[in-house]
Amino acid sequence: MSDILKVTGLARSFTQGGVTIDVLRGVDLSVGPGEIVALLGPSGSGKSTLLQAVGLLEGGFDGSIMIAGEEAARLDNDGRTRLRRDALGFVYQFHHLLPDFNATENVVLPQVIRDVEPGAARTRAETLLTALGLGHRLDHRPSQLSGGEQQRVAVARALANRPALVLADEPTGNLDERTADVVLAEFLRLVRQEGSAALVATHNERLATKMDRVVRLHEGVLETASGDR
């Protein structure tokens, strides 16, 4: 089966004060169906920029980004929005939950945007949240949840529309070590259960080893990989 993600020759530069900074320099990366890949690298290595590119969140990149068989560069803004909505899920370091919505409603919303029938969307949200140990917190708003619980809601939201690929940018970076371990384990379990692929940016070597494969980004170059493809 074809790769869910195939990035070829991806490059991104910025100019500041007359100086050109190469953030990404010819990155090639593939993620297969159901594969969970850790994108390892220190702060400033280009991890977040790479995820922004793959997530179709900003332009200005050179190279090719193929997602679920579609070349992003060939799409107009509406096409990119559709591909992002239908094929991708996102988990960030900070949960970015809507404060006036409860846990279930936060997971229902992206489904409604995709025109899922409200009853089915609620059932899907409750199923995901219960699988993450939040069956007793369905009606709680973010302010009533712990940091780990809020991030679990964010994981459920990312998986709500059954994305082909989940992009996670330091998804446990705002949690203490013990909570981070628990949330990451639940994230990996649920992603595998749902059959999605995932690209997870982290600077944590220990957490990276829990994933199927590790690739390393240093100063915008993908250098080495564990189980390289």
TrEMBL record:
UniProt-listed InterPro entries: AAA+_ATPase, ABC_transporter-like_ATP-bd, ABC_transporter-like_CS, ABC_transpr_LolD-like, MacB-like_ATP-bd, P-loop_NTPase
Gene Ontology biological process terms in this record: lipoprotein localization to outer membrane; protein localization to outer membrane
CDD domains: ABC_MJ0796_LolCDE_FtsE
Domain ABC transporter residues, every copy: 5-229
PROSITE patterns: ABC_TRANSPORTER_1, ABC_TRANSPORTER_2
Gene Ontology MF: a single term: ATP binding
Keywords: ATP-binding, Cell inner membrane, Cell membrane, Membrane, Nucleotide-binding, Transport
SMART domains: AAA
Keyword Membrane: yes
Pfam family, one: ABC_tran
Family: Belongs to the ABC transporter superfamily. Macrolide exporter (TC 3.A.1.122) family.
Protein name: ABC transporter ATP-binding protein
Organism: Sphingobium amiense
